[in-house]
Amino acid sequence: MSEESLSILFLYRTVPGRMLLKLLVNPGVSKAAAHVMSSSVSKLFIPAFVRKNHIDMNKYEEPSGGYRSFNDFFTRKQKPEYVRKYEGGVISPCDGLLTVFDINDDSVFEIKNSKYSVRGLLRDKKLSGRFAGGTACIFRLTPSHYHRYCYPTDGKVYADRRINGELHCVRPVALETFKVFTQNSREYSILKSDEYGSIIQMEVGAMLVGKITNRHSAEKSYNVSGGEEKGYFEYGGSTIILLFENRIELCDDIMNREPVNGEIPVKIGEKLF
Questions:
Q1: What is the pTM of this model?
Q2: What is the three-state SS of the chain?
Q3: Least enclosed by CB within 10 Å: which of 37, 45, 108, 225?
Q4: Which residues, 6 or more positions from 155, have their beta carbon under 8 angstroms from its beta carbon?
Q5: Edge-to-edge strand ranges of the sheet holding 96-102
């Protein structure tokens, strides 16, 4: 078991750990951690992180003077030649580990044996009702993943919303202890696609992250393109959720992949269906 896994088990499964967790989920602590990761001193963490996570830095843009901080590195952009061209359909909005669930008639779905209400997730009774009978796609990003994300298809965004909340780790052990997705701070956009109907794209903050940076238009509604960058997470593991009002079926290439602990590895820009 990795040192990271042992730390998560300590925080969520022991009394001293849960006492420490109460401090860690405080937004002030998250802001302090973000400040450290944005400082020039944090550059010292970059080489070890690259080696540990086997990151091919040839795929990413780097400023002429190098990265100014760890967060500057963490939010790095892919070089244009490595960006997949959008060719229609619905694509993965990010690198991550994907799980797909049907949304039942009561707008409730399961994540790691815990039930989550779509209504509680969105905090909108009327909106959540539209997704009964649809599909939820959960993309879990680990620290080693690319942390910029894009829109999954062409369409019009007609609402952007933010929900504040406590910040919790999004590792599976945390899901067994807390209703993580209904406690974390999160942002979501309501996207209308001519071909696929209404789609929710939600970004969920995680412990010691909480910083979700999205590029919103000043207009009440605006058009977006599949593959167009939506935003990025600063340091940490995070989650993106796509909700579809209709049932979907993943393409064979995705479905036939070897899962990792029940989750399917995907890359940003890959066609889902």
A1: 0.83
A2: CCHHHHHHHHHHHCHHHHHHHHHHCCHHHHHHHHHHHCCHHHHHHHHHHHHHHCCCHHHECCCCCCCCCHHHHHCCCECHHHCCCCCCCCECCCCEEEEEEECCCCCEEEECCEEEEHHHHHCCHHHHHCCCCCEEEEEEECCCCCCEEECCCCEEEEEEEEECCCCCCCCHHHHHHCCHHHHCCEEEEEEEECCCEEEEEEEECCCCCCCEEECCCCCCCEEECCCCEEEEECCCCEEEEEEECCCCCCCHHHHCCCCECCEEEECCCCECC
A3: 225
A4: 191, 192, 193, 194, 196, 199, 223, 224
A5: 222-224, 155-163, 186-193, 197-204, 238-244, 135-141, 96-102, 264-266
Sequence-separated (6 or more) residues with CB below 8 Å from residue 272: 89, 90, 91, 92, 137, 152, 248, 250, 251, 254, 266
Domain ranges of the chain: 3-79, 83-266
State pLDDT tens for residues 22-72: 666 666 666 677 778 889 999 999 999 999 999 999 999 999 999 999 999
C-beta separation of 179 from 114 below 8 A: yes
Residue with tokens 């590792």: 171
pLDDT at 4 over 90: no
Tokens 């609402």, residue located: 159
CA 193 to chain centre: 21
Active site amino acids: 95, 238
Bridge partners of 96, per DSSP, are: 266
Give φ, ψ of 258 to 5 degrees: -75, 115
pLDDT(113) > 50: no
CA distance 210 to 116: 21
